[in-house]
Amino acid sequence: MTERKIITSFTAMPAHDGDGVDLRRAFPGVQLTDHDPFLLLDELGPTDLAPGEARGFPPHPHRGFETVTYLLSGEMQHRDSWGNRGLLRSGDVQWMTAGSGLVHSEMPGEELARAGGRLHGFQLWVNLPRRDKMLAPRYQDTPGERIPVATDGDSVRVKVIAGQALGVTGVIETRIPILYLHATLAPGAEFVQPVARRANAFLYVVEGEAESGGSLIHPKQIGLLDRSGEGVRIRNVGGSELSVLLLAGDPLGEPVARHGPFVMNSKEEIIQAVDDFRSGRMGSMV
């Protein structure tokens, strides 16, 4: 297997979103606008919330892409303008296809808001191809116990959120081929993952020190991978456990028109999305 190399790496910058949620934004930013088909990656927290200190994402619209929320700890209560609701807990994943549009909120769950605790997770935005941008909205709320885990001895553990790893296939359906893995490696351990040459791929180090393609990636850094090989090799070169995300997806190669929570293919479609939201055609939350 020919190993992909790191093109560039940089640190995700501290930021705030929603009603004051502390996060690190890997992209979009100064160094990277998007990485087709990926539009955004945020690490939420980790933030220790005091009792009664509920901070989240109040009602806001989406159209034209998918949001993926993966919680490592805490609770998030989601609601939308069509009456859907649910509770995400530690280890759970929500893959929401916004499609034609909705108004959506994600706030700390009642228990977390009441008693306080740690909120930590990730939000990923995945673009939809032109043919799917006006699909009816859909949720795939997947509890942590349904997310399959692949292992390589006692030193490598991989949560397969989407795609395949070490012979294990994820249960979440994606509109285009997507690989979303959360790997934990013991010191000195190595993990090798095939990735199709056509796919764009990147790493995000949550904790620990990683080496891939001859480059070191430090905590809270993203490493963009080239297409020079058929796979990615990740090695834990630190003295503690390595926690790292590996994501890859087939690029759409389509025009991207982006305005806040709307991602379409043209300016005219963005104007229509704004008008549909303002006129209530995406529903409303009271």
Structure description:
With 286 residues, this protein is mainly beta. It has one domain (6-249): Jelly Rolls. The protein has 2 helices and 26 strands. The protein has helices spanning 110-115, 267-278, and strands at 6-11, 13-17, 21-27, 38-49, 57-62, 65-73, 75-80, 85-89, 93-97, 102-108, 117-127, 138-142, 149-152, 156-162, 164-165, 168-169, 178-185, 190-194, 200-207, 210-212, 215-217, 221-225, 231-236, 242-249, 257-259, 262-264. It has a 7-stranded antiparallel β-sheet with strand order 1-22-19-24-17-14-13, with no helix packed on it. It has a 7-stranded antiparallel β-sheet with strand order 2-3-4-11-6-9-12. A hairpin with a 3-residue loop joins strand 2 and strand 3. The protein is globular, with a radius of gyration of 19 Å. The termini are far apart.
Biggest β-sheet strands, sense, barrel: 7 strands, antiparallel
Known CATH architecture: Sandwich
What is the average per-residue confidence, as pLDDT, rounded to a whole number? Answer: 95
CATH classification, class level: Mainly Beta
Please indicate the percent range of residues in DSSP E strands (runs of 2 or more).
over 45%
Radius of gyration: 19 Å
Which class of secondary structure composition applies to the elements?
mainly beta
As residue ranges, the low-confidence spans are none
Helix-strand topology string = EEEEEEEEEEHEEEEEEEEEEEEEEEEH
Task: Count the E strands.
Answer: 26
Summed up, the domain count is 1
CATH domain fold name: Jelly Rolls
Q: What is the share of helical residues?
A: under 10%
Gross morphology is globular
Tally of separate helices: 2
Which strands sit side by side, in order, in the main sheet?
1-22-19-24-17-14-13
Distance between the termini: 54 Å
